[in-house]
Fold this sequence. Notes:
By secondary structure, this protein is mostly helical. The chain has three domains: 9-72, Arc Repressor Mutant, subunit A, CATH 1.10.10.10; 77-129, Diphtheria Toxin Repressor, domain 2, CATH 1.10.60; 130-163, no CATH class. The protein has helices spanning 9-21, 30-37, 41-53, 69-92, 97-110, 113-128, 154-159; strands at residues 57-58, 66-67, 134-136, 142-144. It has a two-stranded antiparallel ribbon. The protein has a two-stranded antiparallel sheet with strand order 3-4. Strand 1 (57-58) and strand 2 (66-67) form a beta hairpin.
Amino acid sequence: MPGQDRISSNLEDYLETIFMVSDETTGAHSKDIANKMGVTRASVTGALRALSELGLVDYTPYRAVRLTTKGERVARAVAERYAIVYRFMSDVLGLNTADASEAAGVMEHGLSKPVMTRLVKFIRFFENCKHVQFVWQDDDDILCDYDPSDPQCRVCKEHAPTQ
């Protein structure tokens, strides 16, 4: 997206919220956005104006706001990044819901685009790799629970003792 490579994390949060609270027929109302985000309606108005200038929302004061096609694409990408990182924090690292949510939010906005892109690709790969089977130990160490003699696991095969 030319000129739109990096919108602020604050505006990304607004896009994601609009995406979540939008109704197919009526869009999203500023009071619903404000309530969901815990901000004032004046803050919502300022954000909606900025998003409108970027071509991400169709905004007219006192009417419901709708995501543009471009805005929906960005909002979906933001929501997907968050969900993927959240699942990794929760399901793989075993963090509780609050810690996983906080970490995903910080990482989603705090990492550069190239770092986040690689992290998301790694997480997707990790989720799809059927050979990684580990167990978290009580001392926060990791134990591989995969059979190293299985010929399909290249990593285990490379590190298995020679016979």
